[in-house]
Amino acid sequence: MDNYDISTLLGTYAKLAELHEENPFKVKALSAAAFNIKKFKDPLQNMSDETLAALPGIGKSVLSAIKNLLQTGTFPELEQLIAKTPPGVLEMLKVKGLGPKKVGVIWRNMGIETIEDLLDACRENRLVEFPGFGLKTQHEIQQAIQFALNARGWFHYARAEAPAIQMLEKLRTRFPASRTEFTGDFRRNAIVLESIAILTTLKETELLEFTTTNQLERVADTELKFRDANGYLFAFETALASDFEKQWFLGTGSAAHFQALGMDENLAIQGQTEMEIYQHFGFPYILPERREGIGELQSAGNEALIEFKDLKGILHNHTTYSDGLHSLREMAEHAKKLGYEYLGICDHSRTAGYAQGLSNEKVLRQMEEIDALNAELAPFRIFKGIESDILNDGSLDYEPDLLAKFDLIVASIHSPLNMTEDRAMQRLIKAIENPYTRILGHPTGRLLLVRKGYPLNHRYLIDACAANSVAIELNAHPFRLDLDWTHIPYALEKGVLISINPDAHEKEGYYDMHYGTLAARKGGLTKEMTLNAKSLQEFETWLSLKRT
Predict the structure, then answer these.
(1) What is the DSSP string of 57-93?
(2) What does the alpha-carbon distance between residue 48 and residue 52 come to, in Å, rounded to a whole number?
(3) Residue 199 DSSP class
(4) pLDDT (tens digit, 9 = 90+) per residue, 262-311?
(5) What is the spatial distance between Cα 150 and Cα 382, in angstroms, rounded to a whole number?
(6) Superfamily, domain 308-544
(7) Which CATH fold would you assign to the domain 3-85?
(8) Pick from 414, 418, 460: nearest CA to 441
(9) Reported pTM
(10) How many CB atoms lie within 10 A of CB 135?
(11) What angle do CA 163, 478, 422 make, to 5 degrees?
């Protein structure tokens, strides 16, 4: 059980305790612990009781719950609350925007116990009869439920990557004479998945023997599905060794990719390897992550996709000045230790009170500390940045004289997120046109499988960035990955630089750039068009090209 699992279960307990009107102080303590643990990436399972107890917000009751979670995967108080809560009500608590208080009214006062029944109630305008549930709230709940229903059974690539690799290694170790490879969406590095597809030359009997400790889902003539101990669905397909490459090719590409190749069901596939198969179609080998049917054939053989090792700097990071877990010094020293040439510190701006946004005085104090650290850590350099909230009217936080003191400004929308496309575009375009904006941060505000994000006209947005020499962030947090990779080809066409930013709130968050790089490669991002693949000198030159 990793930190994310522990945080999720503590958060679930806090919601259930509030739903059942238990001790509010305990609810607050569990909520705070869940929030802190989610940000802390050193594995709790490797810590002593003394180290755990010293973590922020970890009291006796929380420590006891964590120890039980590490040993058994649950704790008694959580099980007691789950036992007296209908399954459908538990599911409601996972719907974005439905807190324990609202769920309590829906369950006890309205008599609704499933999200399907709640969706029907929204469609029939029954929620508006109750205090606190106006038409706007009802519409928002209906939209959130529909999104949650669509996301059922899906999971993030980043959460499944390590268990999937472990599964593949176990199979290869146990059956070294057989060939076993990832295929399907997982091989294409899809950002969210329904299952982890694996092609193998193993016999069905061998697979069945291997899956005895897992939850079997389905057995067909050449297919077997099961869930591992983490709940991830693995889909196995068997193949003869002589047909493996052809089935691997067919199992990897999307339907749009095959359509672009001109394939149909009657077309015979020629070639003994994937390389030869593509040559038969008149193309060089197409990398698996690019086989999506979005321009990969037009650029085949002429692109050098960005690689993780190409990244020279880390932009958009938070420290304890706002809502980060590590100090400015710790973030800088860790970036230098990892071999990066520069670091962009972009704490939250003053309007973000929920994230301890920086007052004017804190901004100047941080700038002084950056100057001192730069003198100490040279040639490594820290750039003075800010993640400026895009305000309701599209303006940036702070007055122009203070904005002018920053080296780097990432402009982002954090609230309100419930906007029409016209409203969102008005705010974003005005921010892009602001001469102090250098990077547009997480453009849609989405959280994958949790929140859809506000609607945008991406082409118009990219056109505006091109016209104003503004780079676009590909936020590498695996729950964001925003800008979505499907819009990268148009950005490249328009000459807009993409910055793969971790939005790190702790030093371990730097590693999320791995997932940002995977997503960027799907969209065909090259090293030349990646802002933070520039060397320190090249990046300084880019910053010096002041906008007017």
Answers:
(1) T--HHHHHHHHHHHHHSS-HHHHHHHHTS-HHHHHHT
(2) 6
(3) E
(4) 887 666 788 889 999 999 888 999 999 999 999 898 877 667 899 999 99
(5) 42
(6) Metal-dependent hydrolases (3.20.20.140)
(7) DNA polymerase; domain 1 (1.10.150)
(8) 414
(9) 0.80
(10) 10
(11) 150
